[in-house]
């Protein structure tokens, strides 16, 4: 049984990935600094898996504590690295927080893993923001990496470069960067899901919070884009499908790919859904009529962004399985669970 470290493992995507790792028989260790989550998530993971998964509260920016942790967990075979700040808008307002948190935590961890002098398989949580406004749709991995639109996006670009350089310089390091499109949805148990602190930065939590009465109104930012209904088009992927992509990537690194392997993969559905289509779909699956209005375009938004996922389909043997309806219904069930449990 391989022992896998999941950093940021109590976050939205991290918690779902921990569950899928457990389902596949991996031994999992979670570290999280609890800056954007709570121990309630750990309790929920234990309920879903019917297991007690090891958790260590740790801030990876602390190089001394990181060294101590890795030194006492030398049997680690693989790492899935989620730990990072992730709000685009906040990164523009507070760039130093993002450069410090996202890059120091990464380099501290990589330094200690490299010193283990054993083969390490590393999965990096990257983002489709590395592509900026694409020239060709759907977006392939050969799309040029453009100047980042935000400090958040820049940390993902730099993170990929750091990992690639490490792979090229080390005989014991293999890595994959997964470039996510738009994760939505929740675990079918409704015990874990996306739980934003404060006003949601992402569309679906804002939709569900509006539907349940936490928010008075949803704003659609622009209806005059050159799309089929004038609203922005994005590639929305169920978080469980996204979590499973990490396990497939890990399996390929451990069992099949050559040493000193590095590559990046798009993780999406390959289909674009507009904001207005997403709202209509949510109303259909939930039976709730949403209070929304059309507002001005938001600075930095691009009209269309959806993935070509053929590379991940072929090389990782991974494909998304859940529909938009599945994802939205699970998000709605999660929102109702939050209300009932008052998390």
**Count the helices. How many?**
11
Query: Which range does the strand content fall in?
Result: 15-25%
| Sheet with the most strands: spatial strand order | 3-2-1-4-5-6-11
Total beta-strand segments: 14
Overall pLDDT confidence: 95
Can you describe this structure?
By secondary structure, the chain is of the alpha/beta class. It is 41% helix and 18% strand. The chain is built from 11 helices and 14 strands. It has helices spanning 12-23, 39-49, 63-71, 88-93, 95-114, 151-169, 203-212, 239-255, 275-286, 310-315, 324-341, and strands spanning 3-7, 27-32, 54-57, 78-81, 120-127, 173-180, 182-184, 218-221, 233-234, 236-238, 262-267, 273-274, 292-295, 304-305. Strands 3-2-1-4-5-6-11 form a 7-stranded parallel sheet, sandwiched between helices. Strands 12-9-14 form a 3-stranded mixed sheet. Strands 7-10 form a two-stranded parallel sheet. α6 (151-169) links the parallel β5 and β6 (173-180). α3 packs parallel to α5 and α9 (275-286) packs across α11 (324-341). The longest helix has 20 residues, at 95-114.
């Amino acid at each position: 049984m391989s022992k896998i470290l999941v950093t940021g493992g109590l976050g939205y995507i991290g918690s779902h990935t921990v569950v899928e790792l457990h389902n596949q028989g991996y031994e999992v260790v979670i570290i999280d600094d609890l800056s954007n989550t709570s121990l309630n998530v750990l309790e929920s993971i234990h309920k879903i898996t019917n297991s007690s998964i090891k958790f260590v509260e740790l801030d990876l920016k602390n190089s001394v504590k990181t060294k101590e942790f890795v030194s006492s967990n030398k049997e680690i075979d693989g790492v899935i690295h989620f730990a990072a700040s992730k709000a685009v808008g906040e990164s523009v307002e507070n760039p130093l927080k993002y450069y410090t948190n996202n890059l120091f935590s990464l380099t501290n961890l990589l330094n200690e893993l490299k010193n283990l002098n054993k083969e390490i398989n590393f999965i990096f949580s990257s983002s489709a923001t590395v592509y900026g406004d694409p020239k060709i749709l759907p977006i392939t991995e050969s799309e040029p990496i453009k100047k980042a639109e935000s400090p958040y996006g820049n940390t993902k670009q730099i993170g990929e470069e750091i990992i690639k350089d490490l792979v090229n310089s080390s005989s014991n390091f293999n890595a994959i960067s997964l470039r996510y499109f738009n994760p939505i949805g929740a675990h079918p148990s409704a015990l874990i899901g996306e739980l934003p602190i404060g006003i949601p930065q992402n569309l679906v939590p804002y939709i569900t919070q509006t539907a349940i009465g936490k928010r008075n109104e949803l704003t659609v930012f622009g209806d005059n884009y050159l799309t089929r209904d004038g609203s922005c088009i994005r590639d929305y992927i169920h978080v469980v499908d996204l979590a499973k992509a990490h396990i497939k990537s890990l399996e390929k690194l451990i069992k099949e790919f050559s040493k000193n392997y590095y590559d990046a993969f798009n993780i999406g559905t390959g289909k674009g859904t507009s904001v207005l289509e997403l709202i209509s779909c949510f109303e259909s699956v939930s039976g709730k009529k949403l209070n929304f209005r059309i507002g001005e375009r938001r600075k930095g938004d691009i009209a269309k962004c959806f993935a070509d996922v053929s590379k991940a389909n072929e090389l990782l043997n991974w494909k998304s399985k859940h529909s938009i309806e599945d994802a939205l219904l699970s998000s709605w069930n999660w929102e109702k669970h939050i209300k009932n449990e008052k998390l």
